[in-house]
Amino acid sequence: xxxxxxxxxxxxxxxxxxxxxxxxxxxxxxxxxxxxxxxxxxxxxxxxxxxxxxxxxxxxxxxxxxxxxxxxxxxxxx
Length: 78
Fold this sequence. Notes:
By secondary structure, this protein is mostly helical. It has helices spanning 9-22, 36-45, 57-75. The mean pLDDT is 79.
């Protein structure tokens, strides 16, 4: 199984905005409301797949494994 690289989407947005500011631009994200969807659009434009809530897939997998372990201990193997 190929392991996917994951990034905090706000880190990517910050890197892009920092670069734009250094180039003399004045970027604004979500000036009409919550910036989540405009940030997701920016990530998609960069070829990245945003994850709802910026969840790191590795953390999700670790949590699922811990939950499965707890369920096995409490109720036996499924």
